[in-house]
Structure formats: C-alpha cells, structure tokens
Amino acid sequence: MASVTLERLNKTFGSTHIIKDVDLKVGDGEFVVFVGPSGCGKSTLLRLIAGLESISDGELRIADDVVNDLPPRERGVGMVFQSYALYPHMTVYENMAFGLKLAKMANETVDERVMATARILQLEELLHRKPKELSGGQRQRVAMGRAMAREPRILLFDEPLSNLDASLRVQMRNEIARLHHRLGSTMIYVTHDQVEAMTLADKIVVLRDGRIEQVGSPQTLYQQPATRFVAGFIGSPTMNFMPAELLGGNEEGCRVQAPGLGELSLPQDASGQGPGAELSLGVRPEHLRLAEAEGDNRFEIVNVEYLGNEVYVYLEPREGDTLLIHRSEAPSDWQVGQDVALRVDVEHTHLFDASDRALAIATQRHAA
Ligand SMILES: Nc1ncnc2c1ncn2[C@@H]1O[C@H](COP(=O)(O)OP(=O)(O)OP(=O)(O)O)[C@@H](O)[C@H]1O
Ligand SMILES: [Mg+2]
C-alpha cells in the first residue's frame, strides 16, 4: 500500500493541453474519487498514474519514489477499466493468473494469489468458467480480480460499473466499499455516478477542463462547494440557482433581492462586494419549501414527479424562465398548474459572486 502524490502534473497531447498543473495527495489507504464532465481529463489523469501515458511535466510519486519514468508494471498499480475486456478463451482462473505468469511468478505463488483473490471476490465457484458463461457483475468481479491478484499497492478504477444495470451497480458498489474496508488499499476511482462518488469516497476530486476545481470530503463538497460549478455538479437533483442583487451587507451577513422571493437576509459575508452586485443564489431542492402563493412570490408548478420515497416538484417563476426543483420526502397535494410561494431555508443558502466563487458564511452568524 502506498500514497500517491501529484505535483504540478501536466499532460499535453501535441499542442492540446489536457491536464493542467494538478496538485493532489492521495493518502495511504484512502479512497479517492475523480468526478467531472466528460472530457475533463479523468481517464487521462488515471492513465498518467498507471503509467499508460507519459507525463509531460511535473512529478508523480508513489510512496516516496518518483515514478515518472517507471514502466507501468513496476509501479505496483492495478487498473480496472470500464470495458473489462477479459480474455474470452480463458477461464476465470486463467484470466486472473495470466498477468502473474507473464511476470514469471512461480506456479505455486500464482495459485495462492488467484485462490486468495477468488475467495475475497467470491469467485471460487466460477473459476473454471469462461467469461461468456458469467453475468455482467461476475465478469466485473473477474476484471477486479485480475487487477487485484497482482497485489498492487494502488488500485485504479475507470468507471468500472458503467456497463452494469442499476441493481447490479448497487450491489457492486457495495462490494467495492467492503473490499476497500477489508483490504485497506489505496484506491482511485473515476465515475459519472453521483451516488458512487458520494458513498465510496473518503475524498472527492472535482475536475474541470484539466484542472482541479475542488477537493474535499463528500460532505464538504455538498455543504460548502467553493464554486458555482461544484455546487451544480455535486448533488442530484442539482442545486437551484437564481439571480440575486446585493442590497447591502457586512462581515455578519447580507441582504439580497431575488426575483419572486423578495428581500432575503442571508448568512454570507458579502463585505467584499459592492451594493448592487449581481450575485447568484444557490439553494438545494430540499431547502426550498412551498406555501400558498402570495403577492409577487408566485411560482407555477410545471411538473410533479412522485418517486415513492420522495417527490420532486418543478417550478417556474411567473416572470422569467428559470426552472427550479423542490424536493420533499412527504407525498403532497400540489398540482401541476397551481401557483405557489417559495420559501428558502436561509441558513442553507449559497451565494456566488460574479466570478462564481462562493461567499463565505459569516463566522459570527455561523457560530450563533
Ligand atoms: N491520446 C489522445 N490524444 C489526443 N487527445 C486525447 C487523447 N486522449 C484523450 N484526449 C483528450 O483529452 C481530453 C480528456 O480526455 P479523458 O479521456 O481524460 O476525459 P474523461 O474526463 O475521462 O471523459 P469521459 O468522462 O468522457 O470518460 C479529451 O478532450 C480527449 O479528447
Ligand atoms: Mg474517461
């Protein structure tokens, strides 16, 4: 097991700059998840760590060793890809043993390693089968087994579950989490799936256009996104954003005017902003409440989605076309076409300045 350190890591393909000055420390035994929009560089970053791509600039260390120029198989890294590409003509056992034999390991050791891995992944009964005789989840486990059998110090996963159906994903997610608890190995995991990111990660890294936008625990990213981008990216359904004009404020809080919502007293320190500043107010769907329409506070319900354990109500302001989402756990009588007023849990609001940076929560108010 080992830590991974990225220092000002850069990758260019020809003249295209893909990974830009990435600094990151992945602790020994930590589970780190990379998220970000398609094309932001998640797979590239993983491949740089694995040694499947060359590093253009910067330093990559595993434990205390600089590994920039070390070939992949000497890095002690195992990688599981989205397309798990098992060898079709080989049995499960042979698939897992193949890499070990290539590494010229003694037959006895190969057998020990494969059997131990099969036990952990509950593949013992399936060792004689060919991939085509396995379910998707079983194949995925073999792909993981193939990476694990080499006992890598670090396991890398690139969207390993995206080919599986919803229920299998839940099952495999659970297995990966338990595997991590049991093995305690350092894991870096790329996913598009919000739930996977939130549930598996000790630490989430949000990437945007080849740069790190924010790193933090799932809770930190959800509750204190540093930018509007992170706020909108983490959480599903996504955070609501509304324009808000700053009326005034100091270190202890501020007042804003938001269309339809009127004047709001908020806990953010807006002392760095001038009155009249155009801010963006962010409110998560669970922090909006609905009430009887009154005065200008009038939003039309345009859709209601009942999901069994929760309800999403979609709203549009009478003026303007921002679509807002309210989420509640209780069934409601709200009807499409009805006008309602919106209330905001001010303690759970977010404010972003013109450059999309979050304004800090005022310390005094926060402590009170
Ligand atoms: N070998 C290559 N040559 C040139 N450009 C590349 C190469 N590999 C990746 N890229 C580019 O680098 C960028 C990042 O790609 P990458 O595969 O890392 O994205 P990603 O975040 O994994 O996206 P996705 O979520 O779609 O898998 C993309 O714009 C891609 O086109
Ligand atoms: Mg990718």
From TrEMBL:
Keywords tagged on the record: ATP-binding, Nucleotide-binding, Sugar transport, Transport
One GO location term (cellular component): maltose transport complex
Magnesium among keywords: no
InterPro entries associated with the record: AAA+_ATPase, ABC_transporter-like_ATP-bd, ABC_transporter-like_CS, ABC_transpr_MalK-like, ABC_transpr_MalK/UgpC-like, Mo/tungstate-bd_C_term_dom, NA-bd_OB-fold, P-loop_NTPase
SUPFAM superfamilies: MOP-like (SSF50331), P-loop containing nucleoside triphosphate hydrolases (SSF52540)
ABC transporter domain ranges (all copies): 4-234
PROSITE patterns assigned: ABC_TRANSPORTER_1 (PS00211), ABC_TRANSPORTER_2 (PS50893)
GO molecular function: ABC-type maltose transporter activity; ATP binding; ATP hydrolysis activity
Keyword Transmembrane helix included in the entry's annotation: no
Classification via Gene3D superfamilies: 2.40.50.100, Nucleic acid-binding proteins, P-loop containing nucleotide triphosphate hydrolases
NCBIfam families, alphabetized: PRK11650.1
Stated name of the protein: Carbohydrate ABC transporter ATP-binding protein, CUT1 family
